[in-house]
Amino acid sequence: MTAQTSTLLAEAETEANQPVQRRSGRWRYIGGKVLGSFGALMFVIVFNFFLFRVIPADPVRTLARNRLVSDKQVEELTRTLGLDQSLPRQFLTYLQNTFSGEFGLSFKYRQPVGEIILDRLWPTLLLVGTSTILATVIGIYLGMVSAWNRGKLVDHMSTGFSLTLYSMPEWWLGLVFLAVFAVGAGPIPKLFPTGGLHSTDVDPTSFAGGLDTAWHLTLPVITLTLAYLAEYSLIMRSSLLDEMGEDYLTTARAKGLRDVYVRRRHATRNALLPTTTLVVLNLGFIVSGAITIETVFSIPGLGLLTTEALEVPDYPVLQGTFLFFSIAVILANLVSNLLYGLLDPRVRL
Amino acid sequence: MSDLTLTPRRLTWQRRRKSAGRTWSQFRRHRSGMIGLAILVFFGLVALLAPALAPRSMIEVTEATGGVLQPPSWEFPLGTDENGRSVLALLIWGARVSLLVGLLATAISMFLGTLIGLASGHYRNFFGAALFRITEWFLVVPFLPLAIVLASLLGRSLLNVAFVIGVTSWPATALLIRAQTLSIEGRPYLERARALGAGDWRQMSRHVLPNVMPMVFANTTLTVAIAILSETTLSFLGLGDPLRVSWGSMLDDAFQTGAITTGAWWYFLPPGICVILVVMSFTLIGQALEEVYNPRLRDRT
Lengths: 349, 301
Hints:
The complex is a heterodimer.
Chain A: H1 3-17, H2 24-53, H3 59-64, H4 71-81, H5 87-99, H6 113-148, H7 153-166, H8 170-184, H9 207-244, H10 247-254, H11 259-281, H12 283-296, H13 302-311, H14 315-343, H15 345-348
Helix pairs in contact in A: 2-14, 6-7, 6-9, 6-11, 6-12, 6-14, 7-9, 8-9, 8-12, 9-11, 9-12, 11-14, 12-13, 13-14
Chain B: H1 8-28, H2 31-48, H3 50-53, H4 87-122, H5 126-140, H6 143-154, H7 158-185, H8 188-195, H9 200-236, H10 247-256, H11 265-293, H12 295-298
Helix pairs in contact in B: 2-4, 2-11, 4-5, 4-7, 4-9, 4-11, 5-7, 6-7, 7-9, 9-10, 9-11, 10-11
C-alpha cells in the first residue's frame, strides 16, 4: 500500500471514530465537507493563477522562443493574460474568465479551450469509467481471496501479482501489450489495433461502430484495469485482515454462524468501507493513468490533449486541463466523504 | 567504570545505537525486506560503478559503434538503440539518473513534509490549522497534471525534475508526520519539557522529531519508490533532462522511434524491468520497516 493511501485510511478512521453530536451532527458533517471542498476549489483556482504567472518570469517570452507561435499570437496572449496590467488587476480578469468558463484560445487549435475540453471528455470518461469499475470488482475480489487464504499459495501469488503491477509504470505495461497484441510477437498474431478510438471507415454511432470502438478500447482498458486493481486488491486485503482481528467476528463465530457467512455478511461489509471510499479518493491516480495510457494508445481524450499541448507548449490548454482535472478530483473527494458519512454509522449518528 | 564518564549525550547515542541494532535484527527476519535490500544494493553498485562498467563514450551518440536497433549479440548483449549505442550501457548510466532523481526528490519531499507536518502538529493555533488546511488542499491537487504543468513551466533539467516531484509529493508525508506528532505531543515527557521551559524549537527538535524519525524513515523508502516511478513517467512524457539518459527517457526514445512496432523488445523491455525491480525493492524495504516500527502490523501478513 502506498504511503498516501495508508495516511488517507488512517485519516478516515480517526474521522470515523470522532464523536459527532446528535441530529445537528450530520448537517455539521456535510456542511464541513462542503466548505472544505469549496476552500480547496478556491485554493486551486488561486494556485493556478500564480502557477502560470509568477513562476515563469514571463510566459510570453518563454513562448516567443517557440517558432510555432507567431508574433500576433504572442500579442494576443499578452492581452488575454492581461500581462500589461497590474497583478491584482490580472487576478480579477482571471477570476472573471474562469467563472464564466472562459480559458482563452488554444494556440494550436485556435478554439476556445472550454469547447476542446468538452469535445475530448467522452473518450476519457469511457476509458476511465470502464477500467475503474472492472478494477474495483476484480481488485476487491482478489483482495478478499488473499485475505481469506492468508499465508497460503493463493495469497502469495495474488499479493506478488499485485505488488508487481503496483511497481510498474502503467504505460510501460501498455507498451508491452501494444508490442505483443497489437503488433504481434512470435506466434501471437496481430489481434488489436495499435491506437485510436475507432476506425476511419466506420460510423461510430452505429452498432458496428460501437463494436469497433470496443475493439479499439480493449487493450487500453485491460492495461488501466490491471494498473488500478493492484492498489485496490492490496488495500482490500489489508483492511479485511484488520477486520478479521476484531472481537465481533469471534462473537459471530461463537454464536455458531458458519465461517462463510461470517466472512460474507460481517467482515467483508466492514472492510469494503475504506476500500470503496478509496476508489473515489484515488481519482488523482486515476487521472495520471488516463494521461499516460491515452498517450500510448493515442486515444483522443483529455490525457492525450494534455501531452500534445506539452509539445507546443499550449499554455491555455494546459491551464484548462489542469483546472479541469483538479476540480474533478475535488468534487470526487467531496462525494466520497459524503458517501462515507452515509455508509458508516459511526459518522452518521 | 565507564559509567562515570557517561554524559546524557553519550547515553542517548548508546541507546540509539542499541535501538538501531534491534531494528536491524528484526528487519533481517523479513525475507521480502532482505530481498529488496539485495536488489537495491545491486542497483546502487551499478549506479556508482557506471563509469567503470561502461565508459562514458559508450553512451555518446557521436561515438556509437553499432547499427540501428540491432538485436542482441556478443558485442551488444542487449542490442543497440536507434543511434547504434549499446542498450546495456544506456541501462547502466540510466540507473544513475533514476536513482539520483528518486533520492533527491525524496529528500526535498521529506524535508518539506517533516517540517510542515511537525509544525502543523505542534502549533495549536491559527498557524498550525492553516498549515494543516494547506496540506489538505495540496493533497487534493492531482499529481501528474500538476507535475506536467510545473515541469513544462520550469524547463527540462535534472534538478527541475527532482524539484517538481519533491514539491508535489510532500503532503502525504506531512499528514503522516502530523498524526504522529499529535500522538507524541500528548505524552507526559513533553509536558515535563514544557514545564521546564523548553521552547517550541527545542520541543520539536529534541523531543518530537527523534520519536517521529522511525516513521519518517519507513515512509522515505516508500516515497523513493513513488518518486522513481514519477521520474520515469515524466521522462517518458518528454519532460526529463534531454542531456541525460534515464530509464524513462530510454522508454520515451523507444516509443518515439518505433521500437514497439518493429518488435525491438531488447530496447523497451529492459528499462521497464529495471524500474519494476528498483521500485519493488524500495516498496519491500519500506513495508518491512513499517512492520518493524509498527507493532500493530507485526503479527499480520
